[in-house]
User: Fold this.
Amino acid sequence: MSGSHRAPRLVQEGSLYLLLLLLPFSKAVIEIASVGLLVGWLWERIDPTTRFDTVWRAPNLRPLAWLIGAYLGACALSAIGSHDPVSSLRALVSKWGEYLLLLVVVADLGHRPAVVKRSLAVVACSSLLVVLEAWSQVRMGRGWLRGYRLDFFDRVTGPYENPIDLTTYLMVIIPLLMAYSLTRRWLGRGTLWSLLVLLVLCLVNARALGAWLGLGVGLVVSLLAGHVTLRKSGVLLAAVTVLAMGWFAHRSGILQHALPVTDIGRADRWVMWQSALGMIQDRPLFGHGLNTFMANYLDYWVGGEYQPRYAHNCYLQMAAETGLNGLSLFLGLLWQLMAQVIGGVRRSGFQGAVVLTGLVAGLLAFLAQAGIDTNFYSLRQAAMFWTLA
Assistant:
């Protein structure tokens, strides 16, 4: 490969590894890495010798590419009826445009030899940093990198501002690293399993029932759809999770505190969902405009705290902002995306199939939790989903 061809690839790969390593710790890194990924990708598209070196020319990816464009079009169309069209168009470019661009660019990167293997190693290193941040909170009361205090929530948050975001990260990463461990030899596998035990302990200490349920979805996928080796590891990881939860529940009395918190959260979500349904009923086709849910929330307030809030159901919020038209296209995009990944499982050898199954498990856990939380509207969570996808 000539130097002129190597440069854009180095820019893209360096940006990808930086993003995967520091994504849990910095929102600014996401913006910086996204620029590097885009610059390198456009560099290759301009160069006549590499212009057509992209997976997006493959016929099987055309439906997904069309749905990406159609969904962005639905988002743009929603701005017509928005009371703040500038905000809607800004969100189209700075949020959904950036997220889906990550999907497009990283798909090309993942097609190159060894990029996926190196990316998995970087994800493992990143998760170790997350464990160290969580451990320092428990031992010293404050994270060693971000400085978030344990006594603010009285729950571990790691490098995130709240425990829910931490558990979202964990429930996606744990199945992926479990699968990755099966592609390593004994020393590497043992090291990754030690890391997995620590990640599960972080998940338990964060005390978020929704993430436990999300991880359960991921483990069920591993048990039902994975290779027999992955199934055995899924059973083992489930056993480790149950034992860790049981031990922590016994030591801390977590269960008697978790249920009342869950009841309050359920009540809050019910009134937020009712507000979202009211918005959808008023403008069912094209919605109120991208990025306007909080601005319209008090006009549809039915109870709970009287302040602007997210819907805490990404799919209802999407329908409220972009209409049922936008939601349908988005669900079609997700369906086509998962179909492509599952198709990759069937076409791959053992190592590829195992890693892709772990990836599917983590992504499905994310999608399940998105029905009761704000996953797609949190920068670091959304960037993680679309990059891994």
User: Anything to note?
Assistant: The first helix runs from residue 3 to 22. The chain has a mean pLDDT of 86.
